[in-house]
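tmp note - PepSY domain-containing protein
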Amino acid sequence: MFENQRLDRQMKPASGQPGRPTNWRTTLLAVTVLTAAGFALAGGAAAGEIKDPPRWKSGNDFSSLKDWNLKGENIVPHGVNPLYYPIMPGHKHALERSDHPDGKYRKETVVLDTTEDFDIPGIGKFKTAVVQEEERVDGVLTQRAINWLALDKTTNSVYSFGGLSWEIKEGKPIFAGTWRAGDPDGDGVTEPGMLMPGNFTIGDRYIAAGSKSLAFGGSENMEAGIEIRVPAGTFKGCARIREQDLIKPNEITDKVWCPDVGVVSDSSDGKLVISNALPASNPASNVSTVGKASDKPLKQKSPVAKISAAEATKIALERMPGKATDVKIERKLGKNVYVVEIQTSRGEKDVFIDIESGKIVGTE
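out:
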């Protein structure tokens, strides 16, 4: 995420593509009209192919939190943006990609009937929706992520406030990482990202993930009013958005979003095959094939920190004097730890602090 969020470097080592170390997805559009970007008729680009040249940008080229006037009292966990999938409890959809290098790839998204609380200085208190994503290759569950999404009811824009991710190995979930708006991030604070503006304007650019050390990316509105055919049907009045990793600018993704159903084509996750946002007369509205566990709370426990990031930083600096430049939660040495990055006179060092006990469990 961005939302699947998207997707991020620590949360999803293989965002959309198991085994591929990137957090942005890259590939295919199948438009049925000739667009200004030069897409082919009724078939689109092959997987991985981006027809129009990328427009490399820096973070300064995108609107961000300072431009959005987010206020806690205006942020709601559930709602509908015309071009986004319904962020309503019980919504389900799935995309598939048969030409994935690891096998038949499927990504299932479910809006769970739970919320996540936030209290961010400068924004205030609010709740977000909890959106689960599960990735399967040849029917085997390989990754699971939880994303925290919400809408600004004054603009109807959709925002991401972070998430958690697990890799599934031998049927067991292994915590892979997290990022969360409001947490320390280098010399600053992690910011939310915009996933879909309430008013779609071609050429607009906006930060889509706001952790400059973990998940930093931007989106650009590329096209509107296009038509696309995917397994779930033919859709009109759609928009194309390009996502770019601002840490590794060569990593880009194109997505097509359509009214009422949201994403129908994702350049790494494939194309929409089912969605319960479709009319009941459409066979693709039957989402019974979505994993039975997907509409229930996760069985595995999310890592719960009993000490704060600030407390972990203080403990680390007592052990290793210097300047703390970043702190994040990762899985190290078989434990969930704060990784406190410290700039010392001898170079950069990491101190690992157990998130439950506050004990130092290692350095690097």
